[in-house]
Structures are given as C-alpha cells and as structure tokens.
Amino acid sequence: MRIGILTGGGDCPGLNAVLRAAVRAVSVDHGGDVIGFRDGWRGVMEDTWEPLTIDRCRGILPRGGTILGTSRDQPYTRADGVQRVREAISRHRLDAIVAIGGDGTMGVANDLHGDGLPVVGVPKTIDNDIASTEMTFGFQTAVQICTFAIDRLHTTAESHDRVLVVEVMGRHVGHIAVWAGIAGGAAVTLVPEEPFDLDDVASRITTRHDHGSWATIVVVAEGAVPQPGTLSITEPIVDAYGHQRLGGIANVVAAELELRTRIETRTTILGHVQRGGTPVAFDRVLGTRFGVAAVDAVADGAFGSMVALQNGSIVRVPVADAVGHLKRVEPDLLRTSALFAPQRPATGG
Ligand code: F6P
Predict the structure, then answer these.
(1) The CATH number of 2-137+279-322 is which of 3.40.50.450, 3.40.1390.20, 3.10.105.10, 3.30.70.100?
(2) Alpha-carbon distances of 275 from 12, 142, 245, 339, rounded to whole Å
(3) Is 269 a pocket residue for ligand 1 (Cβ < 6 Å)?
C-alpha cells in the first residue's frame, strides 16, 4: 500500500497522533509506504513532501501542531489544482490521499471524490463542529486548557469582586465555551447558537451579586453575536482565504456589562494558547484510532468516506454527510450551562 497524507486548515493537538498511527498501520498491517505532503494541499500541488516512516514519527505523539505543517491552500482555487492532485497521485503511485482537516478540507475531499480521485477524510478541529462525528480530537485539549484558565480566573475575580469575561475559540458553534463554562463553573456562557441580549445578561449578573455571589465568570465564544439591533460590533477582518479573523468580542461584552452592572469587569482572551501544545490523553487516543481507521478505509477502497466517532466506536461515513452543515451544541448542554445565572435568585441549597 502507498498512501499520501496531509494536514490542512488550522492546526490542532492530536494531528501527530493520526500521522504516527497511519504510518504504523500501513507498515504493520499492510506493508508499504506513506508520504507526507507538506503544508496541506499546497504540498500535493507543488510536490513538496517527505517520507513518513516509523523512525520519523518517533516522539511525536505528545507534540502539538503537525510535523507536516499546514495551510489553507486548496486545489479548487487554482485553475490546474485538481490536475496537479491527479498527477501527484499517479507520480507517487498512491492508492489514496488521506486528508486530515476541518470543514474546508473535508469539502475539498468530497469534491475530489466527486472528480474521481481516491481520498479518505479524517475530521479535525478544536471547535468540535464537524457533523457526523461525536467528537474531533483537539477539542478535549482545548476544553482542558480553558478550564484550567477559568479555575485561575475564579480566585482573582473573587478577591476583587469582579466580573471576568473569558473569550474562547468557537467560530460557528459554542462547544468549547459550553464545556469549559460548565467544567470551570462559569455563571454565564455566550455561544453563537443563541444570540445574546446584554441587558438580560447584566440583570442575571446583578441578581447573582445582589444575592451573595461576589464574582462572576462569563465565557464568550469568539463567534457569539448579539441579538439583532441590541449592540453594534465591528465586522472582522477577512484574510486572503476568505477566512474571518475573529477575536475581541469579549472586550465589547465586558465594556457593555460594566456600564450596565456598575461592577468592575475585565477581559481575558485565550486565543491560540487553546490550540497549541501537548494533546490530552483522549485526543491522542482518538487521533490514533482515526489514523488506523483511515488506513483501513484505504485498504477497503472506501474512497469518499470520512472516519468518525459514533457511540464510542470508530465508523466510516460519506464525507459528503460532514460537509456544508455544522454540529451544534446539544440543547440539554445549553440548558445546563444556563442554570448558573438564573434571572431569579436560586432558592434553597
Ligand atoms: O477553526 C478552528 C479555529 O480554532 C477557530 O475557532 C478559530 O476562529 C480559528 O481556528 C482561528 O484560525 P486562524 O488562527 O488560522 O485564524
């Protein structure tokens, strides 16, 4: 067996676990070679790659990022892009390309499959928003990093009787915000799924402080938006790939909450610290399972499929099922997180 493998889109803890496992599965179960394309689809189109061997993968399991590098380049934005992918597959006599990436990379995998090319997808994103898989690796690491940060913010918020607004990643959905908010004991969590009304948030915080709470943690996902007409926010910058550069909503939320509550309010924006560094055990295991399953999919000729986690098992789904719509936060989790700053004071307990 000969496979080409790449990592595309934003990096994510656990990518190296997938690479290492795929190399191991090819070598041990099938015999053959893996070549690692550099910087996502760019490496396929420009033929920049390196042999991925067991030796090359030694020691990478606990390392964040991706040893292959990554980019948002993709074949469908170049006139000859698809042809270049086709040539790379034939030049290297590949059985398939295993594409590890988020929504964008899965979209490309799906389109290439439609164009008759052998591709298998592996879903990746700290945002955990890819449809058809219960979880993506990287997500649990991000949640853990945010939770540790929130734990630290509690003690300083309590000492100063402040509101602390913590911004976490979550471009279209609030999985990180809700999980970290629940795990870190946040009072209020704002997510893209439910546009917020700051008057309502402020009155919940005031109620808390009037009834004995002396500090409030507000978690806000970077993609959270106000209810229409309630607040104006500046449009984010868009980069060369049409990718909005988010970040900073916490500053607006904090300033407006301070005006409304008259409680001193500060901001912490966690940013890329959530994406860097060593993956937690869960993400190493999930990445490893995905790597093995992707090689199995290639061996079975299951092109156009994506490996996924469903009911605790690794399955294959059509990559098309994962493209074009996002997995949102389950309503029960939203309800649970909303219990900690009710509009009326909690009784009993
Ligand atoms: O898509 C994952 C993600 O972590 C988003 O939550 C975030 O908005 C984005 O990546 C940031 O990506 P970049 O650093 O490439 O701008």
Answers:
(1) 3.40.50.450
(2) 6, 6, 15, 29
(3) no
